[in-house]
Amino acid sequence: MQDGIDSSAAQELKTASPLSTFEAHCREGRLAYQITRDGHAVFPPRVCAPGTGTPLDWRISAGLGTVYSTTVVHPREGAPYNVALVDLDEGFRMMSRVDGVAPEAVAIGLRVKVRMADIDHALRPVFTPAEAA
Amino acid sequence: MSLKPGSIAIVGAAESELGQVAPGTTPTDLMAQGVVRALADCGLTLPEVDGLFASTTQQRFATMALAEYLGITPRYQDNTQIGGSSFMSHIAHAMMAINAGLCEVAVIAYGSTQRSVSRAAASPREYHPYETPYQPFLPASAYAMAAARHMHVYGTTREQLAEVAVAARQWALMNPKAWEKKPLTIGEVISARMVSNPLTVRDCCLVTDGGGALVLVSAARAKRMKKPVYVLGVGETLSHASISSMPELTVTGAARSGPQAFTMAGLTPADVDVAMVYDAFTINTILFLEDLGFCAKGEGGAFVSGGAIAPGGRLAVNTNGGGLSYCHPGMYGLLLLIEAVRQVRGECGARQVPNCEIALAHGNGGVLSSQATVLLGPAPD
Question: Does the structure's ipTM exceed the value 0.85?
Answer without folding.
Answer: yes
